[in-house]
């Protein structure tokens, strides 16, 4: 692997190199396409690869820049995104058979804002069917292989996004996080992923799964990259009335802050229970490094988190079934067995239970915010284990499917239920060579603090710089 390969640069680095004309968009785009050609047959990362149109767009970007016409900070940067972000004129499968030929007539707001900043489209990335699966399995299009070990899962549902960023096939990728679907691929694949506060980034034109839990966010190499992307996408959108009207902070400025004076809480229970020994070791090592870098690390007692996990699962299940009710009646045979089972199971949830779960959220949020009043952020594992193998987690609609799903996602769901932000960052490796990530979570709309801690952590460590050998 040549260190001169432009595909190995971070998003922030390549954007600066393009702006300074040290690299051309064609050079950078071709470098990504060359890596994609090698990786795709082994990892199954892309849903569509659009090489010819990507190179044509790169040439157009270079010509515009030569005229002094820059579209924005990402002018000429090639990116690919999870195949659930509508882009007018393009097929958007949502990882499903039902939508395998669906051509979007509108473009999602998040995607449009990145296009407006000058990005070039490489294609679209694999995902779990309808974003409803934490492992990355897909009954229609196959599992995505983990670039660190293709026999292991990437995590889902943003499976292609996590794998593509880890393998340096794209500089960043949009994912979505409804029950952990950005943070789990970040953890399993060794990249950085930001689950944003509900309402920070517009969901207009993004495939819905759960209207009260869905969030849009980036996966990239670094916290700095995530800050750049979040700043571009965040902000009020008339097409999504749930977006916040508050001013968008300068997230990039926040990433220049240090760990000095920061107080980071470690949960006294739940998130530290039943951990794989390797995950527990990485958590201990991370605590020690944070303290050495100037952070104050303290124990924090959170409200009961199991109830939050259960409430999150209930709300997600019912709202997903609501979106899929007509297709379940008319096209049940076109769903994968696990997704169909999970959607059908939700039809038996009493309406009263769903309403109680919604009503309790405000109380639970107030208790949670009070519990973390003395810290800037909380540090916890994303999942209790490193990536399992594709084979051992391929449970379909078997009786233990929900147990497997619950085991992987129990540490991510509470934050989804509360609507809060969380940043997953690479923090180490298991003896097997598989990456291990941890998550930082905090207060609503305080992504800036999480990104500050994440960026400072990455200046002190090099886990985010590690690149898997080509599969």
From TrEMBL:
<feature type="domain" description="Amidase">
    <location>
        <begin position="27"/>
        <end position="451"/>
    </location>
</feature>
<dbReference type="Pfam" id="PF01425">
    <property type="entry name" value="Amidase"/>
</dbReference>
<protein>
    <recommendedName>
        <fullName>Indoleacetamide hydrolase</fullName>
    </recommendedName>
</protein>
<dbReference type="InterPro" id="IPR000120">
    <property type="entry name" value="Amidase"/>
</dbReference>
<dbReference type="InterPro" id="IPR020556">
    <property type="entry name" value="Amidase_CS"/>
</dbReference>
<comment type="function">
    <text>Hydrolyzes indole-3-acetamide (IAM) into indole-3-acetic acid (IAA).</text>
</comment>
<dbReference type="InterPro" id="IPR036928">
    <property type="entry name" value="AS_sf"/>
</dbReference>
<dbReference type="InterPro" id="IPR023631">
    <property type="entry name" value="Amidase_dom"/>
</dbReference>
């Amino acid at each position: 692997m040549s260190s001169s390969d432009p595909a190995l640069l971070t998003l922030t680095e390549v954007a600066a190199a393009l702006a300074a004309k040290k690299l051309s968009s064609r050079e950078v785009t071709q470098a990504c396409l060359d890596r994609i050609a090698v990786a795709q047959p082994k990892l199954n990362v892309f849903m569509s690869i659009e090489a010819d149109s990507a190179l044509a767009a790169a040439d157009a970007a270079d010509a515009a820049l030569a005229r002094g016409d820059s579209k924005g900070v990402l002018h000429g940067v090639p990116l690919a995104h999870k195949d659930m972000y509508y882009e007018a004129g393009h097929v958007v499968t949502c990882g499903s058979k039902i939508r395998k030929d669906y051509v979007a007539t509108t473009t999602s707001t998040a995607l449009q804002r990145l296009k407006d900043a000058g990005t070039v489209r490489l294609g679209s990335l694999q995902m779990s069917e309808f974003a409803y699966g934490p492992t990355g399995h897909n009954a229609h299009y196959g599992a995505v292989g983990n670039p660190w070990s293709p026999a292991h899962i990437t995590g889902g549902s943003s499976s292609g996004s996590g794998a593509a960023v880890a393998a340096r096939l794209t500089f960043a990728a949009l994912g979505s996080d409804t029950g952990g679907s950005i943070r789990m691929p970040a953890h399993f694949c060794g990249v950085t992923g930001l689950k944003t506060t509900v309402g920070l980034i517009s969901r207009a034109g993004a495939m819905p799964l759960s209207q009260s839990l869905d969030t849009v966010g980036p996966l990239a190499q670094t916290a700095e990259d995530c800050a750049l992307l979040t700043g571009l996408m965040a902000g009020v959108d008339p097409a999504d009335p749930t977006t916040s009207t508050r001013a968008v902070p300068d997230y990039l400025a926040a990433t220049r802050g240090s760990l000095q004076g920061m107080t980071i809480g470690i949960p006294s229970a739940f998130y530290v229970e039943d951990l794989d020994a390797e995950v527990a070791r990485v958590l201990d090592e991370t605590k020690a490094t944070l303290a050495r870098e100037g952070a104050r690390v303290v124990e924090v007692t959170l409200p009961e988190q199991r109830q939050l996990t259960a409430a999150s699962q209930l709300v997600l299940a019912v709202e997903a079934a609501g979106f899929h009710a007509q297709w379940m009646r008319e096209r049940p045979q076109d769903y994968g067995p696990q997704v169909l089972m999970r959607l059908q199971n939700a039809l038996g949830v009493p309406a009263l239970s769903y309403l109680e779960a919604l009503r309790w959220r405000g109380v639970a949020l107030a208790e949670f915010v009070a519990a973390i009043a003395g810290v800037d952020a909380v540090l916890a594992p994303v999942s209790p284990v490193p990536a399992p193998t594709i084979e051992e987690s391929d449970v379909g609609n078997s009786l233990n499917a929900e147990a497997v799903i619950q085991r992987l996602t129990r540490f991510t769901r509470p934050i989804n239920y509360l609507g809060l932000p969380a940043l997953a960052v690479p923090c180490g490796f298991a003896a097997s060579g598989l990456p291990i990530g941890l998550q930082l979570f905090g207060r609503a709309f305080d992504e800036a603090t999480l990104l500050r801690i994440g960026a400072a952590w990455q200046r002190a460590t090099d886990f985010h710089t590690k690149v898997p050998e080509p599969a």
